[in-house]
Design a protein that fits this description.
This protein is mostly helical. The chain contains 10 helices and no strands.
Length: about 250
């Protein structure tokens, strides 16, 4: 498995993926610092996990998954390789890219927040603790892994732009609407936004999760939803990963 993963990294070494996973989180933080300095921290996280992060993930999968597809998968079909392992390597490479982007986002957010507070003596309206932000990023990573096999599968079947539309459309539907209900785990796109309600006290609409805010209800802050969301995300990941793997194996057998 290690050789397959290293081969996937080498294939993507000269693509835009490396720049994308660094520039996108930095752009998200800079945009929040420029436009909403007083609410910098909550807006930085909200804009990231609601729009920029899933969009970046979809583009990464489009680039990484499209390299072999452009050649009709002939580059891998001509070799004596396990096609299931090839799919696994693509998924694992996506996991790596997602993890790096989140670490960059966390680091830049913490450094920028500290710099703004010291230089301009800003007291942010809502500023989660460092430990809270670390927990939020870790949970965001776990609850977002399912996006990798989904986007890879859609890219292989439909192409880049249909995949982007379907993924972002379903994700926004889940994040904006379903995340506010008790059945939030039924659509995986609603899980991460619900987790951020619990950990960072941020609603999907960017408002603070407190009485008086639009769409707020006390149930959104219940800690039991944290375990339910993580477990549901891992189950969705297993389902999508297996489905994509089986489809890829059958496709290459034809």
């Amino acid at each position: 498995m290690g050789k397959y993963y290293l081969a996937e990294r080498l294939k993507n070494r000269h693509t835009s993926v490396g720049k994308l996973i660094l520039l996108m989180p930095v752009a998200a933080v800079c945009l929040a610092a420029w436009l909403t300095m007083e609410y910098f921290t909550i807006d930085s996280y909200n804009w990231w996990y609601m729009f920029l992060f899933p969009g970046m993930t979809a583009v990464i999968c489009a680039v990484a998954g499209g390299l072999d597809k452009k050649m009709g998968d002939r580059a891998v079909l001509a070799l004596p390789v396990d096609m299931g392992a090839v799919w696994d390597a693509k998924v694992l490479y996506g996991f790596r890219c997602m993890g790096i982007s989140l670490l960059v986002f966390l680091t830049v957010t913490l450094l920028t927040g500290t710099g703004l507070a010291q230089m301009f003596q800003y007291h942010f309206r809502m500023n989660p603790s460092v430990s809270g932000q670390i927990l939020a990023v870790a949970v965001l990573y776990v609850t977002s892994l399912w996006q990798i096999p989904v986007c890879l599968l859609l890219q292989q079947k439909l192409g880049m732009f249909p995949m982007l539309l379907i993924h972002m459309g379903s994700y926004c539907l889940g994040a904006v609407e379903l995340s506010l209900h008790a059945c939030f785990m039924l659509l995986p796109g609603g899980i991460a936004a619900r987790m951020m309600c619990i950990i960072l006290k941020i609603l999907p609409n960017g408002l603070t999760a407190e009485p008086g805010s639009l769409t707020f209800s006390p149930e959104l802050l219940e800690r039991k939803g944290l375990l339910a969301g993580i477990v549901a995300s891992l189950l969705w990941l297993a389902l999508f990963w297996f489905a994509g793997r089986r489809w890829f194996e059958r496709k290459t057998e034809k």
